Automatic annotation (TrEMBL):
Protein name: LysR family transcriptional regulator
Lineage, highest ranks first: Bacteria, Pseudomonadati, Pseudomonadota, Alphaproteobacteria, Hyphomicrobiales
Family in the record: Belongs to the LysR transcriptional regulatory family.
Keyword Nucleotide-binding carried by entry: no
UniProt keywords, alphabetically: DNA-binding, Transcription, Transcription regulation
InterPro entries given in the database record: HTH-type_LysR_regulators, LysR_HTH_N, LysR_subst-bd, WH-like_DNA-bd_sf, WH_DNA-bd_sf
Functional note: NodD regulates the expression of the nodABCFE genes which encode other nodulation proteins. NodD is also a negative regulator of its own expression. Binds flavonoids as inducers.
Residues covered by the HTH lysR-type domain: 3-60
Length: 300
């Protein structure tokens, strides 16, 4: 039977201090408890570890041979204990996060910055993926959790929690009038040059289905695959982008403003996606808490 860590600690202390009395004081136990721990090792391996005289303890050759291994084992166990404490107290560790491209651009920087300022020792692996890839990346373990415009996927093994929602908006150039409008209608932008996401994307599908229910269809002047492309075109005056209001990164596009669209109002969500049968690590849980706090202040 391998010696216990307690037995190894007693062995190393008696060897270093040359005294059962001093070792007992260091471990805050009785002298008889130290003697028992040493005797248990000796009996277990049929090895004599110390020669005892009336005045001192003298380590045997077997003890001197074993002590270096005992010290390595104790150092490793102590290092593991420190690591575990650091992980629990979010002073160390690594988290992997999958985010949809729009969230990565518009919402994540502030969350990321806040988390890093509070927990600089934690490493973050960031995977920016298309919204349709979030589920696969999280479920196969490449990411501990995902953040993006994810609806309930209907997968029992997945957990989806809505963190915020905002209406689809018309995003245009600030000209002193556009940004002053509290709301626009879909009918009001039918004749404008509109930039929309391509067919097959979730945003486009949601728009087309909602308008079809009212007997209308919106024909865009431009169709794009990336949110940043739509915003860049709008910033250059090519037209009005139709996107969730929270997807406008104001620091990157300070000349643009988002005006919510109504009749009908179409909401898009930002959700937390995780595996239902796995708990989040302390660091990941803290990241989610910060994200919830910051995103709730942007919810519309």
């Amino acid at each position: 039977m391998p010696p216990s860590l307690r037995q190894l600690e007693a062995l190393v202390l008696v060897y270093r201090l040359g005294s059962i009395t001093k070792a007992a004081a260091e471990m805050r136990v009785t002298q008889s408890a130290i003697s028992l721990l040493i005797r248990q090792i000796e009996e277990n391996f049929q090895l004599k570890l110390f020669d005892r005289t009336t005045r001192a303890l003298h380590p045997t050759a077997a003890c001197r041979e074993a002590i270096m291994a005992a010290e390595r084992i104790l150092a490793g166990a102590q290092g593991l204990s420190r690591r575990m404490r650091d992980l629990a107290e979010i002073k160390a560790g690594r988290i992997s996060i999958a985010v949809s491209a729009g969230v990565a651009s518009a919402l994540l920087p502030r969350v990321f910055s806040t988390f890093r300022s509070r927990h600089p020792e934690v490493s973050i692996d960031l995977l920016d993926v298309a919204p349709d890839e979030l589920l696969a990346v999280v479920m196969d373990g490449r990411a501990e959790f995902g953040l993006g415009s994810v609806e309930d996927e209907g997968v029992p093994e997945a957990r989806v929690e809505t963190l915020m929602r905002s209406p689809l908006s018309a995003i245009g150039i600030k000209d002193g009038e556009f940004e002053q409008q509290r709301r626009l209608t879909w009918d009001g932008i039918m004749s404008a040059d509109v930039i929309m996401m391509r067919h097959g994307t979730r945003i486009r599908r949601q728009i087309d289905e909602a308008l079809a229910q009212t007997g209308r269809a919106l024909k865009p002047a431009w169709e794009v695959s990336l949110i940043t492309t739509a915003l860049a075109l709008t910033a250059e005056g090519a037209g009005i982008s139709i996107l969730p209001g929270h997807m406008l990164p104001k620091a990157q596009f300070p000349t643009l403003a988002a005006v919510p669209l109504s009749q009908p109002t179409i909401y898009r969500h930002v959700s937390l996606l995780s595996r239902a049968d796995f708990g989040l690590s302390p660091a990941a849980q803290r990241f989610v808490e910060i994200a919830k706090d910051l995103l709730s202040n942007k919810a519309g």
